[in-house]
Amino acid sequence: MNTDDTKIGVLGWVVGALAVAGLLVLAPYVTPIVLGTWVAEIMRPLQHRLGARLRGRAKVAAILVSALVLVLLAPLVLAGVSLASEVIALYHQLSASQSVQESLVQLVQGDNVEPAAAAGIDALSWNAEQIFRLVREHGSRAWSVVTTVAGATTTTLLALFVFLFTVFAVLANRAAARAWLHAHIPMRTEHLERFTRAFFETGRGLIVGQGMTALSQAAIALVAFLSLGVPRALALGLLTGVAALVPMLGPALVWAPVAAGLALAGRTGAAAVLLGVGVLIIGSVDNLARPIFARYAHLELPTVVLLVSIFGGLSVMGPAGLVLGPLLVRMAIEALRIWRDVQLRRALTV
Predict the structure, then answer these.
(1) What is the value of pTM for the model shown?
(2) Residue 289: how many CB atoms within 10 A of its CB?
(3) Using CA atoms, how far apart are residues 344 and 341, in angstroms rounded to an integer?
(4) CB 278 within 8 A of CB 255
């Protein structure tokens, strides 16, 4: 091996090491970057419409990002904080039940116990000595909770900033980014385009196809729970949307136990109404809405594979696996298809 080959080999190792290091730096924010890119692609038709009236891609991108914050993200953050506390309270309420029947009844009955009474504390009789004793006994734990919450809040805000900046950057510089990728990624143009299409297909499929269908079912369930006076309806509606991602049973994993709890609590009429809404309306939304959304977003993953990729992603990568699990599986399938086509082409040319 001559000197030039040795230098090229060393350069290859340096490039590989720096590429891996760069990916490790970006790893904590891969999910907001991916989501931001998907959202920007979904908003691109709206960008074209506004671009015909307003000059400047950066100006249009700034307007769309501002609208995204005001119309979607701000309400979602506020609702998420409220729903998180509701879900936690529901979990503690159900975990305190002694039997399955009691758990079902607890679903449809409010928690009437005051927090202070439940903790054995008479708030009106507190004095300085009791407060000092509580601080002394639980001060370190309280400080740990405060620091944990502060750290989580900072991480969430940074992720939100990366998400919004990614949306803006992709909307404002999409053409330049595509040109850069084609110029620097050592891959044939047709293969890079296929990976790009698979990437955006996954985003549209998850956000529009799966997400909008689940959101529709969650909205109907929420209206039913509120109309029937079911406590913690917002939390149950959120859980219905999450359960909608599960094949076959889907939202029935939530509304069926609630209906059973209503029947056990003596509210047979409400139970019958919820059963009818669940079977006739919520169950039909999947068959009616999914084909409509599929016109705009079709994900080439079987339902079972999608479910396993979500659960597998959760077990391997935590919450980021909800996004990255299906994405990696879809990209792997596309890679196998490209490799198959390359091998067939080689076989035909021999």
Answers:
(1) 0.70
(2) 17
(3) 5
(4) yes
Buried b (16+ CB within 10 A) or exposed e, 188-224: eeebeebbeebbbbbbbbbbbbbbbbbebbbebbbeb
CA pair distance 229, 8, nearest whole angstrom: 71
Contact 237, 221 (CB under 8 A): yes
CA dihedral sign, ordered 116, 119, 123, 128: negative
Query: Structure tokens of 251?
Result: 């939202």
Give the C-alpha separation, 196 to 201, whole Å. Answer: 8
User: Which residue's entry shows tokens 């809040």?
Assistant: 153
Question: Is the Cα torsion angle 264, 268, 272, 273 positive or negative in sign?
Answer: negative
Per residue of the chain (350 residues), what is the pLDDT tens digit? 567 777 777 888 888 898 889 888 888 899 999 999 999 988 888 888 887 777 777 888 888 888 888 776 666 665 565 566 566 666 666 666 666 676 667 667 665 444 434 444 444 444 555 555 655 555 555 556 556 655 666 787 888 889 989 999 998 888 888 888 888 888 888 999 999 999 999 998 888 877 788 888 888 998 998 898 888 788 788 888 878 876 667 788 888 888 888 888 888 888 899 999 888 888 887 777 666 665 666 778 887 888 788 888 888 888 888 889 999 999 999 999 999 998 988 888 86
Between CA 107 and CA 81 the distance in angstroms is: 21
Distance CA 221, CA 238 (A): 9
